[in-house]
Design a protein that fits this description.
The structure is a homodimer of 199-residue chains.
Chain A lengths: L12 H17 L8 H8 L3 H8 L2 H19 L8 H18 L1 H12 L3 H21 L10 H23 L6 H19 L1
Helix pairs in contact in A: 1-4, 1-6, 4-7, 5-9, 6-7, 7-8, 8-9
Keywords (chains A, B): DNA-binding, Transcription, Transcription regulation
Protein name (chains A, B): TetR/AcrR family transcriptional regulator
InterPro entries (chains A, B): DesT_TetR_C (IPR054129), Homeodomain-like_sf (IPR009057), HTH-type_TetR-like_transc_reg (IPR050109), HTH_TetR (IPR001647), Tet_transcr_reg_TetR-rel_C_sf (IPR036271)
């Protein structure tokens, strides 16, 4: 997992911080936030704890920065293709979301828990990311082919998004009897189905 | 809110404990778990803190007992009528769930947070209650009129149940544009709709 950290490479402090954040995000993929310590990052990066405190201030600030980066990655990686049928584009985006959570299960689960459990800053980052993903549904589907934009459908998308998260986390924990394609189809097709009953 | 605590009433220790639990559940309705202290219960019940420690051991055990009682109440109050059309019975059960969360919003929200946030005992109580509510869908619909019992529909019901919780909590926080009847209709009708796309 460790990233080569040659002392010969001259990086600006900002570049160095970015590199350390990337490493933090990679370490978080298979660990909970509780397990992501400054000590571990120092060991994996091959630099001193003191230098990390210089870059991040304290453990909380480090966690916040890593989680913010992870949320940005999630939003970027789930960006739908620019063209194509709205349902196909949503399916591509959902598949990317599923792949992201599969690849970053431990860290993602711990973020969901931390956000729900009352860490206010992490909750804000989580809610912002959720909100960005939910708003994208409406932005990407500006003609309302899948979901017309009404107070009821805004609420429905919030609920559907909670369902998608639960389905993905439950399926990863126990995928018996459901293929990846079935899961994706259930998640994608359920949105217009719920919107229809909400109509 | 306080329950009359006449010293003339002779209650067994078990009855007294039950009475205190009922009071704890009522106090939790409009408070978070963090706000539900032994001191508050002592004041409301008009008895000494020492006696409460005698009944409950410590604050954690008190919270566990109150949350367990609240979960039992939720399961009991959302029990569907014995007879009738499966969808009608589910709608009645969902309406009772909505009313329960409306009436106990602060406490319920804090339980969801505590359960998600890593308090293991509260998480178990929460998961048991969720699981009981989800299993009831299949038990009450033994003919599979709404949901046939398959691995895919077991997963779907988990997801739908997460959606219902999110819809209820979001709607209570901001009900603009959606009536109670619309919300209930969305929640009830979405289950067969999602099951159909999962078919």
């Amino acid at each position: 997992m460790s990233q080569p950290t040659s002392q010969r490479t001259r990086l600006s402090p900002e570049q160095r911080r970015e590199q350390l954040l990337d490493l933090g995000v990679r370490l978080l993929a298979h660990r909970s936030l509780d397990e992501l310590s400054i000590d571990l990052l120092a060991e994996e990066a091959g630099i001193s704890r003191g230098l990390l405190y210089h870059y991040f201030g304290n453990k909380h600030a480090f966690h916040e920065a890593v989680v913010r980066r992870a949320a940005d990655d999630l939003i970027e990686q789930t960006s739908p293709p620019a063209d194509g049928d709205p349902m196909e584009r949503m399916l591509t985006s959902l598949a990317a979301y599923l792949d992201y959570v599969v690849a970053n299960y431990e860290g993602y689960l711990s973020l969901v828990k931390a956000a729900a459990g009352g860490n206010e800053t992490l909750r804000e980052i989580y809610e912002e990311a959720r909100s960005a993903l939910n708003s994208r549904i409406f932005r990407e589907d500006a003609q309302g082919d899948i979901v017309p934009d009404t107070p009821a459908t805004r609420l429905v998308v919030r609920g559907w998004s909670a369902m998608v998260e639960e389905l993905v986390l439950s399926w990863i924990a126990d995928p018996r009897g459901i293929t990846r394609e079935q899961l994706l189809e259930i998640m994608a097709a359920s949105l217009p189905a719920i919107v229809e009953v909400a109509g």
